[in-house]
Amino acid sequence: MAVYQTNSPEETEQLARCVGEKLRAGDIVAYRGGMGMGKTAFTRGLAAGMGIGVDCVSSPTFAIVNEYRKNGQRLCHFDMYRIDSYDALYSTGFFDYLDEGAVLAIEWSENIEGLDILPKDTIWIAISQTGDLSRTIEIEGGERFENLGC
Length: 150
What we know:
It is a single chain. The protein is an alpha/beta fold. Helix content is about 25%, strand content about 25%. It contains five helices and seven strands; from the N terminus they run E-H-E-H-E-E-H-H-E-H-E-E. A seven-stranded mixed β-sheet has the order 1-7-6-2-5-4-3, covered by helices on one side. A hairpin with a 5-residue loop joins strand 6 (about 125-130) and strand 7. Helix 1 crosses helix 2 (about 40-50). The longest helix has 14 residues, at about 10-20. The mean pLDDT is about 90.
């Protein structure tokens, strides 16, 4: 596990940009962290690192999933806040996305963890608050995300 400290939303996005540069088609990024921890900011950084850009990224709270595409890259941004069962997850179309080769970023992954549907190579990102704007970000998902140099 790699542990990083950020002191502003901009630093969180910059760290995520470095992560996004290392993502591959089919990767699944599952966030853990409460309301206001910076999950959407992190996703903006992922999109930037993937070459998609940040202007289009917004919280998918009401849409459940937002798709971002550019230059052959595809990022599907899920919000599982209101998902509490296998049937509810199925109704989102989530399982269709698993086989499409897109990078999936999943907010509120805690709500689907117990359903045992995320693959073992899921990249886990835990974000916790350490101050008003500072965050500790723990990344589990292999050597790609250690010593990012950001």
